[in-house]
C-alpha cells in the first residue's frame, strides 16, 4: 500500500496543499514549525482516527476555519481508492470512500499506517493511558470493529461514573442502587472483550518485539510485555502494577468479583475503579520494568521495537500490502548506529515517509524523493506545480466540504 496523492484544506498551517508521493522512501525536510509533521499526521489520521500529538481533533483545524479536509489516493497494486475525511472543530466528523459516505470509524479498514515519532518515548516513560492508547490503536487497525467496542466501553464508564457520583451526593448505599447492576453487566461484557483482545495482542507482539529490539539495540536484553489488570488487583493509584499470575477463572467472572470487592470504595469515590481503563502494559528488560530502570537508549529501542513489531504484525496479516511506515523527526533523537539499523529495518517496506529538520540526519538508504516544506508551502522539484495547488484545491474545498457536510441518508455521524 502506498499514498500516491495527499490533499489538505484548512489542515493545521495548510490553507490548501497538494503533494505527490511515490513508492519507496519519501522525505519531507524543513525547519521546525514549517508543517512537515502535519503531513505525516494527516496520513496517519486515516489509520488511527486521531493525532499522535494531541488528544482532540480541534487543534488540527486551521485557525479561522470550522473544519479541515484531508483527501488521499491510495494504491494497492492496480487498485486505487480515495479516502476523504472532514475533521470538524465541533461536532461529528464526516468521511467518504471513493465518493460514498461512510462512518469515520470505518476508515482504518482501508488504510494501515505505522508512525514513529519522538512522542513514542512516552509509551515507555509516560503514564498508563499512553500505553493503553498505543495498544488500542493497534487493535483498531487490526480489527476495526474494536473501535465500536472501545467507544461503547468508554460511554458505559462515563454513565456508570455519573451514577456513582449521584449516589455519593445523595448518600445512597450500594444495596439501594439496583440500577448499578445493569451498568455492571454492560461494563463486564464490553470490558472483558477488550481485556482479552489486549492480552492476545500482547502475546502476539512478544516475539516481533524481541527481534526488533535486538536489531535496533544490537543486543538481546530479553524484552517482554504483559498486562497488569485491575480485575486481578493491580491499582495504579497505589502503584501496585504487578501481574497476578495466579488469578483464575474467566475474565468476566474475575471482573464481576473485583467489582463486588470494590463496591464500597467506588461509592465513596464516585468512580469506576475496576476495568481495562485502569490497566497498564508493563514493559520489561532483563526482567525489570523499563519505566524507571532502562537507560535513555534502551527506552528508545523499546519504543522503536514496539512500532516495528506493530508494522510486522500488520504486514503479516494484511491483504492491502505493507503498512505505510512514517518516521517523523525520529533520526534526530538517535545515535548514528541506531539510525543505520532503523533505516535498514524499514527500507524494504513498500512506502516509507520521513520527516527531518535537516537532510544530513537521514541515512542514505532512505534519502530518495526529497520535498522541502516552508511555512505551509510544499516545494517539490519533481512536481513544481503541486506545492500550493491554488484555485484547483480551493475549488476542492468548496466541492468536498459541501458533500461531506451534507452526506446522504446512508451516512452516519461519528464523534471522533
Provide a brief overview of the structure.
With 416 residues, the protein is an alpha/beta fold. It has ten helices and 15 strands. It has two domains: 1-112 and 321-416, Rossmann fold; 118-317, Up-down Bundle (Glutathione S-transferase Yfyf (Class Pi), Chain A, domain 2), CATH 1.20.1050.
Q: Considering DSSP H and I runs of 4 or more, what fraction of the residues is helical?
A: 40-55%
Shape: globular
CATH homologous superfamily grouping of the largest domain? P-loop containing nucleotide triphosphate hydrolases
Q: How many helical elements?
A: 10
Beta content comes to: 15-25%
Strand order of the largest sheet: 2-1-4-5-6-7
Can you name the CATH architecture of the largest domain? Answer: 3-Layer(aba) Sandwich
Structural class: alpha/beta
Strand count: 15
Report the uncertain regions.
Answer: 389-393, 405-416
Q: How far from one another are the termini?
A: 24 Å
- SSE arrangement, N to C: EEEHEEEEEHHHHEHEEHHEHEEEH
Rg, nearest Å: 23 Å
Q: What is the CATH class name of the largest domain? A: Alpha Beta
Structural domain tally: 2
Domain AAA+ ATPase: 23-377
Pfam families: SMC_N
Family: Belongs to the RecF family.
Subcellular location: Cytoplasm
Amino acid at each position: 500500500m502506498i499514498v500516491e496523492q495527499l490533499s489538505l484544506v484548512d489542515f493545521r498551517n495548510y490553507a490548501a496543499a497538494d503533494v505527490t508521493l511515490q513508492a519507496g522512501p519519501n522525505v519531507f525536510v524543513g525547519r521546525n514549525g514549517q508543517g512537515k509533521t502535519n503531513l505525516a499526521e494527516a496520513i496517519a489520521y486515516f489509520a488511527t482516527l486521531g493525532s499522535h500529538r494531541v488528544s482532540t481533533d480541534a487543534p488540527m483545524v486551521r485557525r479561522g476555519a470550522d473544519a479541515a479536509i484531508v483527501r488521499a489516493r491510495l494504491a494497492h497494486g492496480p487498485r486505487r481508492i480515495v479516502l476523504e475525511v472532514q475533521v470538524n472543530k465541533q461536532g461529528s466528523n464526516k468521511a467518504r470512500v471513493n465518493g460514498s459516505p461512510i462512518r469515520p470509524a470505518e476508515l482504518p479498514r482501508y488504510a494501515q499506517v505505522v508512525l514513529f515519532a519522538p512522542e513514542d518515548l512516552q509509551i515507555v516513560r509516560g503514564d498508563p493511558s499512553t500505553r493503553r492508547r498505543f495498544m488500542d490503536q493497534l487493535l483498531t487497525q487490526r480489527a476495526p470493529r474494536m473501535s465500536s467496542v472501545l467507544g461503547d466501553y468508554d460511554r458505559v464508564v462515563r454513565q456508570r461514573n455519573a451514577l456513582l457520583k449521584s449516589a455519593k451526593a445523595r448518600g445512597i448505599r450500594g444495596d439501594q442502587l439496583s440500577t448499578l447492576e445493569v451498568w455492571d453487566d454492560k461494563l463486564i461484557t464490553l470490558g472483558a472483550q477488550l481485556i482479552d483482545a489486549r492480552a492476545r495482542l500482547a502475546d502476539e507482539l512478544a516475539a516481533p518485539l524481541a527481534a526488533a529490539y535486538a536489531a535496533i539495540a544490537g543486543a538481546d536484553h530479553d524484552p517482554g510485555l504483559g498486562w497488569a489488570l485491575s480485575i486481578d488487583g493491580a491499582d495504579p493509584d497505589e502503584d501496585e502494577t504487578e501481574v497476578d499470575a495466579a488469578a483464575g477463572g474467566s475474565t468476566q467472572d474475575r471482573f464481576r468479583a473485583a467489582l463486588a470487592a470494590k463496591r464500597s470504595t467506588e461509592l465513596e469515590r464516585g468512580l469506576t475503579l475496576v476495568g481495562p481503563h485502569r490497566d497498564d502494559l508493563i514493559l520489561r528488560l532483563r526482567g525489570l520494568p523499563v519505566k524507571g530502570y532502562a537507560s535513555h537508549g534502551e527506552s528508545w529501542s523499546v519504543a522503536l521495537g514496539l512500532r516495528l513489531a506493530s508494522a510486522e504484525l500488520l504486514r503479516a496479516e494484511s491483504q492491502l500490502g505493507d503498512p505505510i511506515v512514517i518516521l517523523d523527526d525520529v533520526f534526530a533523537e538517535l545515535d548514528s548506529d541506531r539510525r543505520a539499523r532503523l533505516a535498514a529495518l524499514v527500507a524494504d517496506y513498500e512506502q516509507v515517509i520521513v520527516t527531518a529538520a535537516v537532510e544530513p540526519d537521514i541515512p542514505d538508504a532512505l534519502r530518495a524523493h526529497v520535498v522541502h516544506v516552508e511555512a505551509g508551502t510544499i516545494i517539490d522539484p519533481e512536481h513544481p506545480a503541486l506545492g500550493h495547488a491554488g484555485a484547483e484545491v480551493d475549488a476542492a474545498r468548496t466541492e468536498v466540504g459541501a458533500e461531506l457536510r451534507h452526506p446522504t441518508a446512508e451516512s452516519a455521524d461519528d464523534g471522533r
